[in-house]
Design a protein that fits this description.
The protein has one domain: Rossmann fold, CATH 3.40.50.360. Helices cover 44% and strands 19% of the residues. The strands form 2 sheets. Strands 1, 2, 3, 4, 5 and 6 form a 6-stranded parallel sheet that branches. The chain has a two-stranded antiparallel ribbon with strand order 7-8. Strand 3, helix 4 and strand 4 form a beta-alpha-beta unit. The two termini are 13 Å apart.
């Protein structure tokens, strides 16, 4: 099972448009997946969990999206030259070793030219520390402001790159 994660909790984010494109490609390929959109998760669960409190809703989230998944696709925007704090907090409060041995594809999203390359490298280092297998085809999506119209990606090169990344990741 694949878990696709939209790695920001900012309302009405452009990263979700990229994530929805991944969903469409996975549906077309008839690949089973589930979608965890951090925009729709109560970030207070993560904070409470980090303070050692029991959070049954968080435990259900872990059971559904992480225990059952052998692969993850994380789509994340650039925040201050890295990735969103909510995604880091989620990783920090996940049960120890839950990401160990999981195969993970990363996609960075930015309005600038870099496509969140720094964030991709930063998260790769963290995931390697946790003994996850990060797929080498990390996709930086740059210029996101100019490629989205009517909540769809209009840039054919980006659509082709997402499809290519998915093809090789599914064989990983």
């Amino acid at each position: 099972m694949i878990t696709l994660i939209n790695g920001t909790n900012r309302p009405d984010n452009r990263t979700s448009v990229i994530s929805e494109t991944y969903q469409q490609f996975l549906i077309t390929r008839q690949t089973p997946f589930q979608y965890l959109n951090l925009e729709h998760v109560d970030g207070l669960w993560f904070i409470q969990k980090s303070l050692g409190k029991a959070v049954p809703e968080f435990d259900k989230l872990v059971e559904k999206y992480f225990n059952e998944a052998d692969k993850l696709i994380i789509v994340m925007p650039e925040y201050n030259g890295s990735f969103p704090g909510i995604l880091k907090l989620l990783i920090d409060v996940l049960p120890y070793k839950i990401l160990e041995g999981k195969k993970i594809a990363l996609t960075g999203v930015a309005s600038g030219r870099g496509g969140n390359l720094r964030g991709l490298d930063h998260l790769t280092g963290i995931l390697h520390y946790l003994n996850a297998y990060v797929h080498p085809f990390k996709l930086p999506v740059s210029g996101v402001l100019n490629m989205i119209q009517d909540n769809h990606i209009k840039d054919e090169n980006t659509l082709r790159d997402i499809q290519k990344q998915l093809e090789v990741f599914l064989k990983f």
